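Re: [help] complex structure
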Amino acid sequence: KAGVTQTPRYLIKTRGQQVTLSCSPISGHRSVSWYQQTPGQGLQFLFEYFSETQRNKGNFPGRFSGRQFSNSRSEMNVSTLELGDSALYLCASSEFDRNYGYTFGSGTRLTVV
Amino acid sequence: QKEVEQNSGPLSVPEGAIASLNCTYSDRGSQSFFWYRQYSGKSPELIMFIYSNGDKEDGRFTAQLNKASQYVSLLIRDSQPSDSATYLCAVNRIIKTSYDKVIFGPGTSLSVIP
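Output below.
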């Protein structure tokens, strides 16, 4: 099976711009979760989608949003970028029963200048 | 109190020794527990999960869970330099009947010295 695919791998944006990140989960996995990873805060949960519905959301401002398509691919959008949004954004794929753990994508490294 | 806590390290052990990584969690309703390994510049990789009190062994790795003490640990026997990485503890919290949320600890950096 192909792994979790995230695009792009690297992005450089300026403050105030918006950005869209993409994630294709493992075939057959219907749950996609997004995490932000920074050296100071570690892995912080953004949101989780299952069958095109957001099931769970972390404590991030409304500038962070996402969606999931019928083929389980997911996108994450950040509007009005701030310097503090610079981070590694990780997508995690899992089968319905998440007790078996995640498979992570390689991540998108976002730098806001 | 943070929901999931780990010793930040760095933890240094000589090659061939046992590395012991610890994690505590605050929510007694947590059901399942995971250990992920993350090499520098890479994404986390699942290495172990455990649901029940006691020990679970997989090769050189042993996960230990004590729900009464809200404590989970990872032992790495015969540590190798290739085990040098950051180890993330993750806990599955029940939010509602139909779904839950995974919370990660800050990670412990392990260095195995040849």
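The CA atoms of residues 10 and 109 of chain B lie 5 Å apart.
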